[in-house]
Every structure is written in structure tokens, then in C-alpha cells.
Amino acid sequence: MALTKTWQYPIVLAAGFAATTAFAAGGAPEWSYEGSNGPEYWGDLLPDWAACSNGTEQSPINLTGARRGRADDLKLYWNKNAEWEVENNGHTIELGATDAGYATLGGKKFDLLQFHFHTPSEHAIKSERSEMEVHFVHRADDGLLAVLGVMMEIGRRNGGNSGGRDLFSRIMAVAPEEKSEHGIELEHVNPNDLLPAANQGSDFYRYAGSLTTPGCNEIVTWTVLEKPITVKKPAVETFQDIFPMNARPLQDLNGREITKRGGGRD
Question: Is the distance from CB of 96 to CB of 114 less than 8 angstroms?
Fold first, then answer.
């Protein structure tokens, strides 16, 4: 199963629920990744965030013990000509666009809203976390989400589609160091450049989970690619200078099944 680079292709992946944007709604309490308003206390900050403490299908998780299985395909129709803006929302660097394209899952349309980054990777694969992880957030009209997660590692060779390393470097070259109210326009952004190259395969993990930020709503089907992309070290260091750590701790599986597309049982 190969990834391609063109617009209106489809890229075929197995279906899944995903995470939403990494910032709290307007008027919500301040939260962070450490201290008295860190992940351990998210569920106490607001009644609507109770799932952060008592939910049973929380994310992220350690992707291990997966079984090979079948799943509906997630087809990506991303717009490589969309007009993107780079924002520091106080919790991550995020890129948003009004016409970013969409994905379909089981005939249902999910609009691509934004993509953002975490360090270290929020998910672990066989107990190993990568340097970073990028999340592509899609939302359907009924509010359900489909997020695609891609691991990011430091490397000298480009491990993604053409321009992948340079795209992340370009993003970090303009990313605001402080929380910003307005985004910075960035031209020639093709999100496909942050996917593994077509000839590298596209094995992935699938499971039902939640948002990884408050209120941790369990409305997410996750698709996490096994193959990482490589990005340049200076760009990673720039991100980590702004956000030294913005990853939620791993959550209990609580009996959920993890499906792996490609290969056998982990």
C-alpha cells in the first residue's frame, strides 16, 4: 500500500478516529504539560474535562501487541494549493487553512482543519518514542474526528516526500516564539511533504481513542503510520526551544484492540 504525492489521488490508509486541535476553547482554564495544571490535573480543571481523569479510551498509547486486521480505508484529498497560516497557540506550532482539502472514511467526509506538532512523539511504537510527531486533524460535520499521526526523526536524508525536511524547516523559520493572536502566512505548503515517501510503504496502527488535550473527548479514531519521516536537527531544536515538551503521558489501553495494517502481530 503506497503513498503518493498528488492532489486528488487518493492516498489509501485504514480508517480511524483522531485528535483535535491542541488548544483549549475560549474561556477555558489555563492548562499545561507540567505543574499544578499539567496532565495529572486536567480532569479537575473543568467538569467537561472529566474524561481526562476517568476516561477509558484515552490517548496517546503505546502501540504494541497489535494484531493484523482489516479496516475501512481513509482516503486523503488534500489541497496542495491551500493558503496556510503558522500560529503559536501556546501549546504547539499549528498550521491552519480554510480550504485544506478533506479525507473520506466509509463514504463520510472529514475536512482537514489543521496540522500541528508534539515533542517527543505522543504515541510510542513498541515502547519507543520518536523525536517528534505531527498530527493531521480532520473533522466531520457531526464533530467526529479522524487524525493521522506521523513520527518525525532527525536525519540527514529526506525520509518523506520531496521537500519534507525543507517544509518543516520553513515552518520553524517563521514560527512565532510566543503565543500569537494572528497567524503568519506561509506560501507553497504541501502537507503531503510531511508523509513518508511512496516507496517506503505505509504500514500503520489503528485504534479508538481520544483527544490528547483537554477535554480528552473519546471521539477519535487514530491512524499512526509506522514509518517515520526525517527532518533537520536545527528545525527540531528550534521547536524544542519554544516547547521543550508538549506530549501527554501514555495512557492505559484498558482492553482496547490495536489493529496493524501490514505485517503480522507485533
Answer: yes
Q: Which three cell numbers stand for residue 120?
A: 517527543
| Phi (first) and psi of residue 199, to 5 degrees | -80, 5
Amino acid identity of residue 35, one-letter, is G
- Better pLDDT: 204 or 26: 204
The DSSP output letter for 101 is: E
Phi, psi of 130 (to 5 degrees): -85, 175
C-alpha–C-alpha distance, residues 16 and 98, integer Å: 23
Tell me the mean pLDDT in the region 7-15.
39
- CA dist., res. 251 & res. 266, Å (int): 19
Which comes out higher in pLDDT, residue 105 or 2?
Answer: 105
Statement: residue 104 has pLDDT above 90: no
Residue 9 predicted with pLDDT over 60: no
Alpha carbons within 13 angstroms on the beta-carbon side of residue 185 total 4
Cα(262)–Cα(58) distance, integer angstroms: 24
Query: How far, in whole angstroms, is CA 71 from its chain's centroid?
Result: 20
C-alpha cell at 157: 536524508
The grid coordinates listed for 203 are 504500514
Give the position of cell 513498541: 126
- At residue 173's C-alpha, the angle toward residues 167 and 179, to 5°, is 110
Supply the pTM of this predicted model.
0.88
Amino acid 201: pLDDT: 61
